[in-house]
Design a protein that fits this description.
It is built from seven helices and five strands. By secondary structure, it is mainly alpha-helical. It is globular. The chain binds iron/sulfur cluster (2 copies).
């Protein structure tokens, strides 16, 4: 229940801030398309892009059919809570800190959508100021250290 409570207040692994895509097995493509989600064909295989269109109000709308990488993924914070190394209140405080750092990035950029997705687009277009870049580094470093670690989807 604590794990569910954490993920329902987080969703960083579905909203484009931790990952740009989710890889799919060939036999998962049909189920994903049945839920109305777009599948992109890449050289390495099919992927769903993120932010995931299956994410509604921080819940997965295709939960029983979610792809294998979504089923198996556990970020470092999730693992720490599962192992009892951190309590729910402290884990939620980490999520709040991550959100605060992402909001600082988002506030410095035009448009809407996930902060780091917008930051990647701004960097691609050469529109990322040094000040905003520093905010992006501050947010990315926190996500790397508290969530992503060496684990990839
Ligand atoms: S990033 Fe971790 S805590 Fe957040 S929703 Fe994903 S698995 Fe749960
Ligand atoms: S399918 Fe569900 S668990 Fe997977 S990225 Fe989309 S919202 Fe998240």
């Amino acid at each position: 229940m604590s794990l569910e409570a954490l993920c329902q207040r987080c969703a960083l692994c579905c909203d484009g801030n931790l990952f740009a895509t989710v890889p799919l097995r060939a036999d998962e493509v049909e189920a994903v398309r049945r839920h109305g989600l777009v599948v992109l064909e890449r050289a390495a295989g099919p992927v769903m892009s993120q932010p995931c269109a299956g994410l509604q109000a921080e819940s997965c709308t295709l939960y029983p059919d979610r792809p294998a990488p979504c089923r198996s993924y556990a970020c470092m914070l999730y693992a720490a809570l599962a192992e009892g190394e951190v309590g729910l209140a402290d884990a939620l405080a980490v999520v709040a800190e991550a959100r605060a750092r992402l909001i600082a990035v988002a506030s410095a950029l035009p448009g809407d959508g996930p902060a780091l997705v917008r930051a990647r687009a701004a960097a691609r277009d050469g529109h990322l100021s040094p000040e905003t870049h520093a905010l992006v580094v501050r947010a990315s470093e926190f996500l790397e250290r508290r969530f992503r670690g060496h684990t990839r989807r």
